[in-house]
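Worked example 4.2. Below are the chains of a multi-component assembly; read each line carefully before continuing.
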Amino acid sequence: MLALLLSLPALAQTGGRAAEIQIKAAFLYKFGGFVEWPPKAFVEPDAPFVIGVLGADVLAGELEQLVSGRTVHDRRVAVRRLRRSDSLAGLHVLFVGQSEDARLPEILQAARGQAVLLVTESEDALAQGSMINFVTVADKVRFDVALPPAERGQLKISSRLLGVARRVISG
Amino acid sequence: MELLSPRSVRQKLVGLVLVATLAAILVAILAMIAYDLRLYHTSWIADLETQAELVARTSAPALAFDDARVAQENLELLRYRPKVRAAALYDARGKLFARFAPDPELTFPSMPEADGVRLDGDDLVVFKRIVNDRETLGTVYLRADYELYDRLLGYLGIAAVVLVAAMLVAYFLSRVLQAVVTRPLLAIADVAREVTEKRNFSLRAQKLSRDEIGMLAEGFNTMLAEMERLNAELEQRVRERTAQLEYTNRELEAFCYSVSHDLRAPLRAIDGFSQALVEDFPKELPEAAQRFLSRIRSSTQRMGQLIEDLLNLSQVSRVSLERQEIDITEIAKQVTADLRGREPERRIEISIAEGLRAEGDPRLLRAAIENLVGNAWKFTSKTERPRVEIGARREGAPPTFFVRDNGAGFDMAYAAKLFGAFQRLHSNTDYPGTGIGLATVQRIMHRHGGRIWADAQPGKGAVFFFTLEPDG
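Applying the procedure described above to all two chains together yields the following structure tokens:
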């Protein structure tokens, strides 16, 4: 795990698509630590922390490697590769890749009001109901945060996370 | 200097108070400084660790999401902690991620060290791992002023001022307060000094306190009372004894005088009638009877002389001394002329130094010189070329006079007996005498405060030295 963390900035520097995906995977995992879910989001005491990935298989692969043996909120982390028809039930984080841009409004609409952290990487995604949206600024992966959809999903995003967001849309 | 070798109890007390104050204040100040520095040390370290923890916590997201700008902003908040001289964040790989230092010349360690606090020169250096959700995100580095030595110096400065002030206060206070102890003591000391100087045992020390010094005063007074009583008793006893002695002495002298005096009348009768017998009955008395009578007469005359000498001796003690300037040369000349007149047939060389002068009683000194010169005259009677010298030794004080002869002399072994009454070193037949003369001379010298001593060799002569004043 340390090896991966250590390699992270180096990849960021080299740039390239592969590096970007790795960084996004790492961020995706780390977001969990800065967000609070309502108790109802975890049905069983030892239920895993589930990250769903839609339309980003490479990233899902990276993420699977990354989370093996790690925890978020003291829960085992599980990665679920989703298909378009799959239900969002049991998810805590949902990442929708750029390839699903066309269906994004629909997907986001489906997740609206649920305790699922919605993460996207598409322009204008926040306006469509996404909570965290990756952007690339000067070859660096950054992210914007929209609070209203998170509030609707009863998610509490830590101000510490907001501190490192590029932009925060609130109220 | 006054404090180092105090001469009085007062100074000792003041010194004592100062030393005690110094010790107490030093201990107190050192304890306070030690306590404060320790407190400073521990609290500053705790403070810095807290600060490092805070930075770690606020910077965790920045490190997690690789946001150097936010990390930088977080670090720059430390400008409100001016004691923090430098701060840095290292990422999980140990690479410098963000840094902050008001002083641009400060360098940063290239790699983070293990968690902990250590001293680096005048600074405290803290390394603290940033852990979020069990994951090490990086390391916080803080470098802050460690002002222990500055504080120590500051405290020592304050301590010096406090010490001086306290010593001054202690000095003046003790100067004032020492009187409580010393006044009763000094009162006793004063009385003691006065008693010693004036030998006045009727003085009493005042008891000014109820402590040991008060007891001392009481004891001292008791001793003084005892001494006064003993002294009075002693004086009374001396007075009584003196009176007794004087009475006995007077009795004795009166007895001696009257005996001598009364003895003379019958002696004169014996001598007179013996003479009458010889003169009135020159034919009737056989020659043997006349010879016996002549021996009776010479014996009575000798006894008369003895009585005369005894009277003289007792007179020397009784008459009062009249000191006046005396020409000893003149007296010696008169005495020798007198002797020559009595025995004109003797050929004797007499030399008298000119200008011998002394202070003394003229009558007693004449008697003494008569005795000494008479002795010289007498003991040279069998010498071939008799010579008598009267003079003075020039050197030394008091002036020492002498009478020297080349007569019979005597063995120095008997010198001690020389001046005792009735002590004779030669038989009466060789040199007639009563043995009282030198005793009388010695008594005369003693009455003048002087002394007499002799040097002699048998057959070679004798010298008698005398002084009329105490030695030295």
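Take a moment to check your reading of the output against the notes. Chain B touches chain A at residues 57-58, 60-62, 64-67, 70, 91-93, 95, 132-137 (CB under 8 Å). Residues 97 and 186 of chain B are 82 Å apart (CA to CA).
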